[in-house]
Amino acid sequence: MSLHEAPAEVQLAVDLIELLELNQVAPELALKALAMVTADYKRKLDASKDEE
């Protein structure tokens, strides 16, 4: 399976990894930032469910 045939979340993950690596982001910093992003998107998801 090529990347173009992979699910959207896999494509996005590969893009994010490439972005972090190209910018030489330290793994610990990347994980801390991704934890913040995860928390933010969980809040957004919860808020959208409350609106239904």
Automatic annotation (TrEMBL):
Lineage of producing organism: Bacteria, Pseudomonadati, Pseudomonadota, Gammaproteobacteria, Aeromonadales
UniProt name for this protein: DUF2496 domain-containing protein
One Pfam short name: DUF2496
Top-rank taxon: Bacteria
InterPro entries recorded: DUF2496_YbaM-rel
